[in-house]
Amino acid sequence: MYKKIVAIGGGEIGKVKKDKTRSNYETKEQDEKIIELTGKEKPNFLFIGHAEPIEHQKSYYKTMRDIYNKMYGCPYKTIRSSDLENTEKVKELIDWADIIYEGGGNTKRMLELWNDTGFNIILKEALMKLKVLCGISAGASCWFSECLTDSLRLENENAPLIIIPGLNFVDGVFVPHANEEKKKIIKKYLKNTNKYAYLVSDCAALLINNDKIEVVKSRNDAYCIKVYWKNNKFYEEEL
User: Fold this and answer.
1) Does the N terminus or the C terminus of the chain have fewer Cβ atoms within 10 A?
2) Secondary structure (DSSP) of 1-24
3) d(CA 209, CA 223)
């Protein structure tokens, strides 16, 4: 199946912090590639942001509007979590969009919301209509067969990292904010299986255009590594 997906491992996106200052903007290169992938100069941009709690979504919407609408001139709309019960409205917005972008946050809660409301099915239809599906952290992990997430740690810092099913639009296990701790967990999880995983650091992204994979980096030390076991040996391939 032909698909257009951009999965960003993490990084600062210029959010306004509690002290009213802005964080750095580290995903410029990825955002420009997302726009380029549509084949349009100013594509319609739809932000969903359902991985964040409802009370935090408003500020996230403003941040993404500042980037895609004010910086790049893209027409901009949103689907709030509370909109998902209105299937007709949601489908109209999805049809309007060229880009559908999910932000970071609680991957587990976000996917449960989508499954409960049927939004997962609507997203599958968007994939088949060649919309560009993209996002960062939770919004990158969701498109894959499985993902490693710290969702439980958002409520209990001592909770373990867990592997959960994604939407299965792309085969493989996606690992955002990749580091050595996560590599060890994935190495153990993959052993004695035919599965593979993508370890994607902050400021790096996998750009999937049909079956072609491109790595987009916005920092010199960023990386994407494909890992798997073969003949009882663990392989790491930098993409």
Assistant:
1) N
2) ---EEEEE----B--B-TTSPBPP
3) 19
